[in-house]
Every structure is written in structure tokens, then in C-alpha cells.
Amino acid sequence: MTVATPMLGAIRSCDELPDEFFTQFLDPTRTYSCALWTHPDDTLEQAQFAKIDLALDKCDLRPGMTLLDVGCGWGSTMLRAMDDYGVNAIGLTGNRHQYRYVRDQLVDRLIRGHPYGGVRRQGWEELGRRPDRIVCIGRLEHFHSKRYPDFFDFAYRTLPEDGVLLVQTVVAPDRSDTDQTRVAAADSTAPETIFPVDRLLPPTGHNPKGVTEYAEDAGFTITRLERLGQHYTTTLQCWTSALHEHRDRAIDLAGPDTYNAYISSMTGCADHFRSGQLDVVQFTCTKLAAPHQPVPRSLPRDIPATVIAEPA
């Protein structure tokens, strides 16, 4: 199928789009990252909570801790941590719509006596507090690779001796310049509608350097590494189906070029995850109290996708 190439200047960025556009295809939590199906009958919302819980469980959270959510989006992860794990949470986002939404959600929780929650329109470089745990879900792939050392150094320096950084990011396994160019070209009609394909790194490697190596260079030990890639195929299929269903309203909100760009990007990316050209990995980066003691690197583990239900 040939997809008409829209004018790039007519495609609206995420920051320019109203929240209502994203509600046309995201689940009620507005989680904009790969979900995890643990049962074939799960709804998209249930699958998103399963992914969030998988990430939070790896953080060894305890009531009263402070969790930093880098790239908090509409707040689903930090709100879940507050509600179910009893931790304080700080979310960082540069998007004004997301900031206002999370702020309103936190006011409601404060009234109901939940732990402290805060959201800030700032980067992690500007943070003055020292969290106990850090999560970064679906944000790392938007960094330029030149910022990776600074980010992991920041996390290692900021966390306590037993700190954990949980990163979930899209990667390009066995990346080569040829493969990367081909994948990027397939999505060139919709730049950054989902993630910048041309900047993705491999999970491990030295040329180019992988996410694992950036974390280890900062001092972290990768204690767990799990692949969720096939689950992103189904996540994207769910989003595409919902966006198709709400086509008229989505076009009213964003225009036909933006609508077509999102459809094209999500469809193309789903194919890349299905074929294995792209993957999603959760990296558990642990700051060990005695880093001089050798710890075996965790082998990658695929989270089975055989139970995933195809969207209706």
C-alpha cells in the first residue's frame, strides 16, 4: 500500500496538538508507550498498567521514597506509584498540556490525602532534589546520543547507594548504518510522531555504543534486561485501529496531514517491531553499594508475546 507523503510543514508537533487528539487513540490513562499483555482478554488500559507495574516492581519501591519520573507524559506511571506503592513522586515534562493535566490530577490526590506529588516543566539537568528511584519510560529515545553520558551520570550521581534507574526505551538491535537508513526512510513522512527512528541505539554494543554501555560507563550494573518488542506491535495496532475509528474527530483536531502522518508512522513502526528491526527493552540499572565486586550481567530475556490478543 502506498501512503501519500504529507507536507512536513503541515504536520503538527506533539507540543502543538491538544490533549483531545491523543485521547482519540490512547487508553484512559493516556500512556504513550509500549503496553504489556499478560492475558489475551486484557484491554489496552489493563496492558498499560501491567507494563507500568512491571517497571515499578523492579525499582524496589518502599512507602515514603521519592520517585523521579523523567518524561512523565500524562502521569500514568507516577500516579500509579503514588496510589499503589505509597511513594512520593516528581514528574518532569516539557509539554505544557501534559503539565496542566498532571497538575490537576495531583491536586485531586492531595485533597484525598495521597503522598506528595509534584510536576515540573523542566529538564532533569535542572533538578535540585535527590530521588530514591528514577524511571524513564519512552523518553530516552528522544535524547540525542551526545546527551546519554550526561543523563546516566546525572542518575548515578543523584541516586543513593542502593538506587535504581529503570529505563524503558526503543532500540535498534544489530544496528548498522544501512539498516538504520532504511528504517528511517520508511518513517520519514512522519518525523517524531512516535519516536525519532534515525537516532535509535542498539541495546548493547560498542560501534555504535549501546544503551547498556552508556549505563555501565556511568557506574551502573545492569541487573535485569527484558525485551517487550512484540508487545509494541499490538500496542501500535490498537492505537491505529482507534485512530481510524475516530478519524473525523482526529482530523478536526489536528488536520489531515497530521492524521495521515500518525497513521503512517504507527503502521510502519508496527511492521518494524514485528520483523525485529526494532525492539523495546526495559533496563534495570542498579547502583550497587560495593561496585568493585563483580556482578554477572543479566542476559536479555524476552517477555513472551504468544498470549497477545489481536485488536478487533
Briefly, what is this?
The chain is an alpha/beta fold.
Describe this structure in words.
- The protein starts with 18 loop residues before the first helix and ends in a 10-residue tail after the last strand.
- The protein has an eight-stranded mixed β-sheet, with helices on both faces.
- The chain contains ten helices and eight strands.
- The protein has one domain (8-288): Rossmann fold, CATH 3.40.50.
- 38% of the residues lie in helices and 14% in strands.
Percent range of helical residues? 25-40%
Q: How many whole angstroms does the radius of gyration measure?
A: 19 Å
Instruction: Kindly identify the CATH topology.
Output: Rossmann fold
Strand runs, count: 8
Q: Please identify the top-level CATH class.
A: Alpha Beta
What is the averaged pLDDT score?
86
Name the shape in a single word. globular
Give structural attributes.
single chain, 312 residues, alpha/beta, Rossmann fold, 10 helices, globular, disordered N terminus
Walk me through the topology.
Blueprint: H1 19-23, H2 44-57, E1 66-70, H3 76-85, E2 88-92, H4 96-111, E3 117-120, E4 133-137, H5 148-158, E5 164-171, H6 177-186, H7 211-218, E6 221-227, H8 229-245, H9 247-254, H10 256-275, E7 279-286, E8 301-302
Parallel strand pairs: 1-2, 1-4, 2-3, 4-5, 6-8
Antiparallel strand pairs: 5-7, 6-7
